[in-house]
Design brief:
By secondary structure, the protein is mainly α. The protein is built from two helices and no strands.
Length: 78
């Protein structure tokens, strides 16, 4: 079974990347993939939605919402 190691490290002076993996025997050939972390901080979906402008509101009052829901429920009974 192949084991995958996920290691986070910092690029060192001279554009070097160095890490220690005690579970790997010396002399073993390994494959290394480097994925740079995004410089842009990630935000949650909720935070993103808060940044969007408000669109036109379908219902102006809670009573209109209740009326719409009741109409939908009545349609199920037909």
């Amino acid at each position: 079974m192949q084991t995958t190691l996920h290691i986070e490290t910092t690029v060192l002076p001279g554009n070097r990347v160095e890490f220690t993996a005690p579970g790997l025997p010396e002399g073993t050939t390994v494959e290394v993939t480097v994925v740079p972390k995004s410089a842009v901080p990630r935000t949650s979906m909720l935070e993103y939605l808060k940044t969007l402008p408000l669109g036109p509101l379908v219902f102006k009052t809670p009573a209109e919402v209740d009326e719409y829901i009741q109409e939908e429920r009545n349609a199920w009974d037909r």
